[in-house]
Amino acid sequence: MSLYLRLVLVSVLLCGCSTLTEFVIVNSTDKPLAVRLVFTANNQDTFKTTTTAQLEESDRKWNDLSGEAVQFDEENRAYTLSLPAAHALLVTTEINYSGHERELFPISEIILSQDEDVKEFMGKSAQLAFQTKKNGSYRLVYRP
């Protein structure tokens, strides 16, 4: 077997077997949304945002949130931030996510609040709050 053929075979095996699934919270309102996320482990270092208009584009650009924009409670592994109006927040990505029947999920609690409206998702309901889209991503869309 030629070296070229071996390299192609190795590339296909290494690259062709994984998919990356995005989990996104979408603020579909015209006001900022308070977001609190509790992770099951300390696996989240940065959050990324984009506009809701860019979210539908295949070549969308995610922007890192600055460290000052996110408060972190280390003891509870909880992150709190404000998501601007008409913006989306990339909260986590999963490799080879097989669907909601999967037992392990990195987020154990989600609280979304705006004015007097508060939506809480705890345990398995935090995972189930994300609905699949046709591009394979999962979205939790906030509507008051």
Describe this structure in words.
This protein has 144 residues and is an alpha+beta fold. The protein has one domain (19-142). Helices cover 15% and strands 42% of the residues. The chain contains 3 helices and 11 strands, in the order αβββαββββββαββ. It has helices spanning 3-15, 52-55, 124-128; strands at residues 20-27, 33-39, 48-51, 63-64, 70-73, 78-83, 87-95, 107-114, 117-122, 131-132, 138-142. Strands 4-3-7-1-11-10 form a 6-stranded mixed β-sheet. It has a 5-stranded antiparallel β-sheet with strand order 5-6-2-8-9. A hairpin with a 4-residue loop joins strand 5 (70-73) and strand 6 (78-83). It is globular and about 40 Å long. It starts with a helix and ends with a strand. The mean pLDDT is 87.
Q: Distance N terminus to C terminus?
A: 61 Å
The helix/strand series, from N terminus to C terminus, equals: HEEEHEEEEEEHEE
Low-confidence stretches: none
What about the largest sheet?
A: 6 strands, mixed
Counting DSSP H or I runs of 4 or more residues, the number of helices is: 3
In spatial order, strands of the major sheet run 4-3-7-1-11-10
User: What fraction of residues sit in β-strands?
Assistant: 35-45%
Helix % is: 10-25%
**What structural category do the secondary elements indicate?**
alpha+beta
Number of domains: 1
In round numbers, the mean pLDDT is 87
Overall spatial form: globular
User: What's the quaternary structure here?
Assistant: single chain
Rg, nearest Å: 17 Å
Number of strands: 11
